[in-house]
Design a protein that fits this description.
Two copies of one chain form a homodimer.
Chain A: H1 7-24, E1 28-31, H2 34-41, E2 53-57, E3 64-68, H3 72-78, E4 86-89, H4 101-111, E5 119-122, H5 131-140, E6 145-148, H6 152-156, H7 162-185, H8 192-205, E7 243-253, E8 256-266, H9 271-289, H10 297-310, E9 321-323, E10 352-355, E11 359-360, E12 365-366, E13 370-374, E14 379-381, E15 390-391
Parallel strand pairs in A: 1-5, 3-4, 5-6, 8-15
Antiparallel strand pairs in A: 1-2, 2-3, 7-8, 9-10, 10-13, 11-12, 13-14
Helix pairs in contact in A: 4-5, 7-8, 9-10
Protein name (chains A, B): Ectoine hydrolase DoeA
InterPro entries (chains A, B): Creatin/AminoP/Spt16_N, Creatinase/aminopeptidase-like, Creatinase_N, Pept_M24, Peptidase_M24B
GO molecular function, one term (chains A, B): hydrolase activity
């Protein structure tokens, strides 16, 4: 099976992580974020509902994949490392309250390799590193010193390679195709579920021979009053006249995402709605003007908020963007910096983020967003699609 | 917005959990499993990528929903409780390494309600209860006694109500429709991604006016050698002649699942493959004969394994089933009992599980599975679909 990236790229990534580990005094790092596992080794499979991870150490050039017995054959097909770096725990440790995989790991990897008294970094706030996983590991490695990785691997992923950007642009083309399909099929009286079925079909079919992956977040398309509840999923009620619906979707290619939202109003939008569009478009332009190497993430958020306030819209400190790249459910964000007024991350060429300044009011909402690549001169959209409120 | 169940059903469920808490000496329970949140309150939304949960206490009749500020409007639309039981933390606590929602929760809910020295149960091995969430909560509630809920709420969900079974049967009808669609469109030369697009379209469109939800696991359809790696996701390569592909899919209705796998062989299967089918069908029959109230989960597994061994197939202790019901990514299982030889859970009428005795060999695999309801007399399939190896 062909890897998504040349082996040299994985080797380079692992070395980068090892450098950061050395700088922070970390001997061994356990990455349980499936996006981090993929980025470090190529591993890709729907197996993150059981305990698994990738272990990077300063002692060994290549990382170790660990997972359940049944998934080792997937690791053999997907990882750049060979069999000797793939370690599987027995099936009886799967979802068994009496036997935790981390006990097995402590004995069979950490003690076996003399890492029982190392400084070990774990991804403390990750979905796939549970409270029990940590307690089991700590109590079985009583001589080790545990530290939070503070998203070390996620941070290492911030600046994308050319190949990663290529994949994100393919995802972006799928995103555009999805929005075009929405415009084609959504109209008053059509059930939402029908449009969602079309979104999925388009997303998976992909574009020009590049077939799509499942996105890490399902399509969100709340209308009218529900648009204030931006994470509610669809039902089968028909679209109504004189309501706005925002469509938050992302194409996904080789697990890389390129999310983008557009709002579609069916009927004649009120002046308030049109004003919101005007405010958003002007605020996005103001934000993007600040999106260039050397500036800070907060510069973007402040420029946006300033325009929004001019139009009387207070976003109450809600962040207006987050980094994107390779990822798995439940989130397509990379969980490092945020685009918000209190975040002073320095922007660098090769960084990618979803700039998403929605307006969510009590009884309506509007989203017009862009996935952005910081380049040497400023920034560019990863998706080529008209930026406006659509009216039908 | 209409709740999925009458308010009385939610009230009954909460009371059941409170009884169990009392029995175990638990004052306050925090449910972070989105399936448990849904079952207890009706809450449903794609917001589980941030910290959220439902708190059940012995002091208050109704549970408390907590989540980020932005998601409170979803809770207002989806939960059976009123506004005063919905507590939102400020947006600045979202994915911010310096501010953890559990700090806020400790102060604004636990101290505010006098639960700072209570016995508090948390879902220790849940995806959505991270190591950091636990450490933050423990360090901010230094007088409290923390215990593992040991999946108390999941166990309370084991026996399904009539309405839940109704939903699972609708999900089962969607599952059957998906398999029918697979049979219609899959053939040698067709890219897998095309079939996946059709699976999604069918799953979302649903059946007879019941539109489908997103399933908690994406369609899995590995072929030939890859079928040994059962959690690998699809690509766009065409189906090949003389290979078997198993399709592990589930319809989903109001978040209730009814998974079922079937294997499709394109060409003329080898005698080994046909023998595997024979072994599986006989083993499934033997297992299902043991699936009745009063028997144990291990009785099913042992009956199955006995037949498998007769055919020379050693499943190496892999479990052959797990409970199903309401759930969210990354898993459609309920994570309580397992159908395995070492699990002695007593079967009761109303229990539902996915009986999935796959055979995964080094270079091929076969899955024929059933979603099962234990009834007063024995058991029944939740899905009505021919149980056999399909050949095309």
């Amino acid at each position: 099976m062909k890897l998504a990236f040349p082996k040299a790229e994985y080797v380079k990534r692992v070395k980068k992580v090892q450098r950061e580990m050395r700088r922070k005094g970390i001997d061994v790092l356990i990455a349980t974020d499936p996006g981090n596992m993929n980025w470090l080794t190529g591993y890709d499979g729907w197996s993150f509902y059981v305990h698994q991870g990738v272990i990077v150490s300063l002692d060994e050039e290549e990382p170790i994949w660990f997972g359940r017995h049944m998934d080792k054959s997937a690791a053999l097909l997907r990882c750049y490392m060979k069999d000797d770096k793939l370690i599987a725990y027995p099936e009886e440790y799967v979802q068994n309250l009496d036997k935790h995989p981390m006990e097995w790991l402590a004995k069979n990897i950490f003690f076996a390799r003399g890492w029982h008294d190392a400084t070990i970094a774990t991804e403390m706030d990750n979905y796939y590193y549970s409270a029990q996983a940590h307690l089991s590991l700590v109590s079985n490695l009583w001589k080790a010193r545990f530290v939070d990785s503070q998203n070390l691997v996620n941070w290492a992923r911030c600046i994308k390679s050319d190949k990663e950007i290529e994949y994100m642009k393919i995802a972006g083309r799928i995103t555009s195709k999805i929005h075009q399909r929405i415009l084609d099929v959504a109209r008053v009286g059509i059930p939402k579920s029908f449009v969602v079925a079309q979104i999925y079909e388009t997303a998976i079919e992909g574009v020009d021979g590049y077939s799509g992956d499942y996105p890490s977040i399902v399509p969100l398309l709340p209308s009218g009053k529900e648009a204030s509840a931006s994470h509610i999923t669809w039902d089968n009620k028909p679209f109504k006249a004189n309501e706005g619906t925002f469509f938050e979707v992302s194409g996904c290619y080789k697990r890389y995402h390129c999310p983008m939202s557009r709002t579609l109003y069916m009927g004649k939008p009120s002046q308030r709605f049109l004003n919101a569009e005007k405010a958003l478009l002007e605020a996005i332009d103001a934000g993007l003007e600040q999106a260039k190497p050397g500036n800070k993430t907060s510069d973007i958020a402040k420029a946006l908020d300033k325009v929004m306030l001019k139009y009387g819209i207070d976003r109450h400190g809600a962040r207006c963007g987050y980094p994107i790249g390779v990822s798995y459910p439940p989130d397509w964000g990379e969980r490092t910096f945020s685009i918000r007024a209190s975040d002073d991350t320095i922007l660098k060429s090769g960084m990618t983020f979803h700039f998403m300044p929605g307006i969510w009011q009590d009884d309506w909402g509007i989203e017009i967003t862009e996935s952005i690549l910081i380049n040497d001169d400023g920034c560019e959209s990863l998706c080529d699609y008209p930026r406006k409120l659509f009216i039908k």
